[in-house]
Amino acid sequence: MYPHFALTLQRTLYHTFDAPGDALVLDGGRTLSSHTVAYQTWGQLDETRSNAILIFHALSGDSHVSGQHEDGRSGWWNMMVGPGCAFDTDRYFIICANVLGGCKGSTGPSSHNPETGRPYGTDFPVVTIDDMVRAQRPLLRLLGIEKLHAVNGASMGGMLALAFTQLYPEMTERAIIMASAAANHAQAIAWNKIGRRAIMNDPHWLGGHYYDSPDGPPRRGLAVARMIGHVTYISEGAMDRKFGRSLQAADKESFSFGVDYAVESYLAYQGKSFHERFDANSYLYITRAIDYFDFAAKTKGDLTAAFAQTRARYRFFSYDADWLYSPERNEAMAQAALAGGREAVHHRVHAPLGHDAFLVQKEPQTELISEFLQK
Amino acid sequence: MYPHFALTLQRTLYHTFDAPGDALVLDGGRTLSSHTVAYQTWGQLDETRSNAILIFHALSGDSHVSGQHEDGRSGWWNMMVGPGCAFDTDRYFIICANVLGGCKGSTGPSSHNPETGRPYGTDFPVVTIDDMVRAQRPLLRLLGIEKLHAVNGASMGGMLALAFTQLYPEMTERAIIMASAAANHAQAIAWNKIGRRAIMNDPHWLGGHYYDSPDGPPRRGLAVARMIGHVTYISEGAMDRKFGRSLQAADKESFSFGVDYAVESYLAYQGKSFHERFDANSYLYITRAIDYFDFAAKTKGDLTAAFAQTRARYRFFSYDADWLYSPERNEAMAQAALAGGREAVHHRVHAPLGHDAFLVQKEPQTELISEFLQK
Question: What would the mean pLDDT of B246-260 be, rounded to a whole number?
Answer without folding.
Answer: 93
